[in-house]
Amino acid sequence: xxxxxxxxxxxxxxxxxxxxxxxxxxxxxxxxxxxxxxxxxxxxxxxxxxxxxxxxxxxxxxxxxxxxxxxxxxxxxxxxxxxxxxxxxxxxxxxxxxxxxxxxxxxxxxxxxxxxxxxxxxxxxxxxxxxxxxxxxxxxxxxxxxxxxxxxxxxxxxxxxxxxxxxxxxxxxxxxxxxxxxxxxxxxxxxxxxxxxxxxxxxxxxxxxxxxxxxxxxxxxxxxxxxxxxxxxxxxxxxxxxxxxxxxxxxxxxxxxxxxxxxxxxxxxxxxxxxxxxxxxxxxxxxxxxxxxxxxxxxxxxxxxxxx
Length: 308
Description:
By secondary structure, the protein is mostly beta strands. It has helices at residues 40-45, 97-100; strands at residues 2-9, 13-24, 29-38, 55-66, 69-77, 105-114, 119-126, 140-150, 153-164, 174-186, 191-206, 212-227, 232-243, 253-267, 270-281, 296-307. It is built from two helices and 16 strands. The longest helix is centred in the N-terminal third of the chain and has 6 residues, at 40-45.
């Protein structure tokens, strides 16, 4: 059993995420996992047709392992992205722009085949992006490759394709494609680089031109993580997101963000994170306290992570 809690200060104190995981996953035979999320994040990540409010059954699946093959059935987290729902497994306080426009979970079936100690192949069929209950009779295909030739380098490549309703209200929707790449370079025991790239598209989408057409978006995020010593670590994130059709953000814009996080670990169970973040757009798309939209915004965050 594992419990993770994040407390985030954003004008006031807030329980951002508390997670509980119960798992029995033997190397052979049947097993399963149940993961629930409580707090502010739960309302953000919940699947359509699932829990709402501050409680979410984030994962719930059974699995069967036979040799090099693992089959999962139920609800599980996405293959896409460098950042994950579990806050304590990320290196920053805030989430990347890419994270917000990637799927969080899928409901369906996933098969993983470990070809050898360095290569795994993944194939699955699910209801679509964040859909506990399918919106239509069409299914989404997922396919992925995880390659780890050494401790110094790893690469994952995953893709999703399926005919799904448009993410814009009033549009009929059509084929959705998402291609995601994540490369990790472990320069040393204390320094690592991570690069994450996404390309997505949707046919029959309602764009800002009020026409049913194809829309696309793409973005890239880079992370530099440095463990200064046993008690201190630093993480720098730089990111670029191109929403040229205005389909994902509601504005035809190019977004950039830079984040610096400094963390102090007084023990293995506690981590205190402080963060400075700057966001910029080529359009005035940020809501400002003055009431007028702005082209940039800055934020300061303080979070405490407890691991049990």
